[in-house]
Design goal:
Elements (H helix, E strand, L loop, with lengths): L1 H35 L3 H6 L4 E2 L5 E4 L2 E4 L5 H4 L3 E5 L5 E2 L3 E8 L7 E7 L5 E9 L8 E8 L9 E7 L12 E8 L10 H10 L1 H6 L1 E9 L4 E7 L12 E5 L5 E4 L11
Parallel strand pairs: 5-11
Antiparallel strand pairs: 1-2, 2-3, 4-6, 6-9, 7-8, 7-10, 8-9, 10-11, 12-13, 13-14, 14-15
Length: 266
């Protein structure tokens, strides 16, 4: 009888210890998950809902994370954006639209800059007033920025700078909002046969000369260079043209490689 009681006690102790260990492990995992979340986006990515507020908020455990929207709220009485909005995913060409007080312009425009995650400028444009800017009221504006999508990290900053012809620092001002870039599309390899086929269809290349069997691939620019044999009536001293086919755009154009003026083929 004593042996049976002893066995029961041992089983109970082992079972209870197992439950405590599982609870401890579960709590530890939860604590570890909380430690991993350090900002709003990580909170959202972890499956937590965003609160209906602006800026949006996300709560996990006892922590609340606020979405970063740049300094939009601080500048809302001076300039605001209709598009893009903070944390919007953008691609090139980027059309920027919004409204700014008339004194944000000079001669009807102001500069717009796009940077990558490290603050490096990857695109620039000019925001042009879409109405009379000699006023203190809000004036619609529009700008276009063309840029190369960064290959490393997909976040950057759109900066709308107050035009400051005086160059005095006390007159500087800017609206800055965070943006995300669409992922760069993978560039598929282009074989020499495919490049030659594109070159043969190119009107520009056919007008410049006859395609030859001499060609090479430029790894830096990711282009195929196909030598052209000049037609007698088009021959000019100092030019050695090539039909250049881009692996990225799948289009062809002529590079004259001239040491003198580019010849007129018309």
């Amino acid at each position: 009888m004593k042996k049976i009681l002893l066995i029961i006690v041992v089983v109970v102790v082992i079972f209870g210890s197992s439950i405590l260990w599982l609870d401890f492990t579960s709590d530890s995992d939860k604590d570890e998950d909380l430690v991993k979340i350090t900002n709003f986006q990580e909170c959202i990515d972890a499956g937590n809902p965003a609160m209906e507020s602006y800026p949006r908020q996300c709560r996990v455990g006892e922590q609340t994370f606020v979405e970063y929207i740049g300094n939009e709220n601080e500048k809302v009485d001076l300039i605001f954006l209709d598009s893009p909005r903070p944390n919007q995913t953008i691609k090139s060409p980027l059309i920027v639209k919004g409204q700014a007080r008339g004194f944000w312009f000079f001669e009807g425009d102001f500069p717009v800059v796009l940077t990558n995650w490290d603050g490096l400028i990857i695109g620039q444009g000019i925001a042009v007033a879409q109405g009379e800017w000699m006023t203190e009221k809000f004036v619609p504006f529009q700008a276009e920025i063309k840029f190369e999508t960064p290959e490393y990290k997909n976040n950057g900053t759109l900066i709308l700078q107050k035009d400051n012809p005086s160059d005095l620092p006390e007159h500087d001002d800017a609206l800055e909002i965070p943006v995300f870039f669409t992922k760069a599309e993978a560039i598929l390899p282009l074989s020499s046969d495919e490049a030659l086929a594109i070159a043969r269809e190119s009107k520009e290349c056919s007008m410049a000369g006859i395609l030859t069997d001499e060609y090479f691939y430029n790894e830096n620019s990711r282009t195929w260079w196909i030598d052209l044999e000049r037609m007698p009536e088009l021959e000019k001293d100092g030019c050695d043209p090539a039909c250049v086919v881009s692996e990225k755009t799948r289009e062809a154009e002529v590079n004259w490689r001239c040491t003198s003026a580019v010849p007129d083929v018309n």
